[in-house]
Design brief:
There is one protein chain. This protein is α/β, with parallel strands linked by helices. The protein has one domain: Rossmann fold (3-Layer(aba) Sandwich). It has an 8-stranded mixed sheet with strand order 1-2-4-3-5-6-7-8, with helices on both faces. Helix 1 packs across helix 6 and helix 3 crosses helix 4. The longest helix has 17 residues. It is globular and about 40 Å long. The N and C termini lie close together (10 Å).
């Protein structure tokens, strides 16, 4: 598949998740062949520099991206102090579902198959949404995620799922292996050598981007 080089200008969107208005940035490359919704992890937002690196790679592969805040602006201000929302996995899962529902009806994306990219606790939210929206979600990728927090939803995920973990992230590797064993869909686990939890080491985030792009392009197009 041809890779685009031009940058894509994001368009702000607002998504109603059961009355909670969520902010997002929708980037639509020319001739986009699928859409990837990003579910950010604990304490993060749509401005995550690491996820934006991955999003740029996906856009060059002709995939649209939706960078979404899973918390409202008020909730984010509270969560900075109390951390009470970032681990509310059922709520976060419901909000990823709302984003999937929005994407399936919004004119720019309604014809596209949806993929979900989750980081940290956002991976659990993405897997819950995939379990609840099997006809809409075509693939899932987790980066340094906590898929174990999806609990009973793991066995109900039908979408092909890729778990990416840093080779030096020992605790999370074990949690991912346990979640991997429970997944019944097509699945792979990739360990990125030398990477810690945030993939800050040179070249490691590029490897995450490559793995995610290849997984989504194959399954969403």
């Amino acid at each position: 598949m041809a890779v685009q080089s031009e940058s894509v200008t994001p368009v702000p969107v607002r998504i109603d998740a059961a009355g909670a208005m969520l902010n997002g940035d929708l980037s639509l490359p020319a001739d986009a062949v699928g859409l990837v919704v990003f579910a950010h992890g604990s304490g993060s937002s749509r401005h995550s520099s690491r996820n934006r690196v991955v999003a740029d790679a996906l856009q060059r592969g002709r995939l649209a991206t939706l960078m979404l805040d899973l918390l409202t602006e008020h909730e984010e201000r509270v969560d900075v102090i109390t951390a009470e929302f970032r681990f509310d996995i059922p709520m976060l899962g419901e909000r990823v579902m709302a984003a999937v529902d929005w994407a399936r009806t919004a004119p720019p994306t309604a014809s596209m198959t949806v993929g979900l990219f989750g980081a940290s606790t956002g991976a659990a939210a993405a897997l819950i949404a995939a379990a609840e929206r099997p006809a809409a979600v075509g693939a899932v990728v987790s980066r340094g995620g906590r898929p174990d927090l999806a609990e009973d939803a793991l066995e109900r995920v039908a979408a092909p799922t890729l778990l990416i973990v840093g080779g030096r992230d020992d605790v999370v590797i074990q949690l991912n292996r346990e979640a991997y064993a429970r997944l019944r869909s097509e699945k792979e686990i990739e360990i990125v050598p030398g990477a810690t939890h945030l993939f800050e080491e040179p070249g490691t985030l590029d490897e995450v981007s490559r793995l995610a792009r290849d997984w989504f392009v194959k399954r969403l197009t």
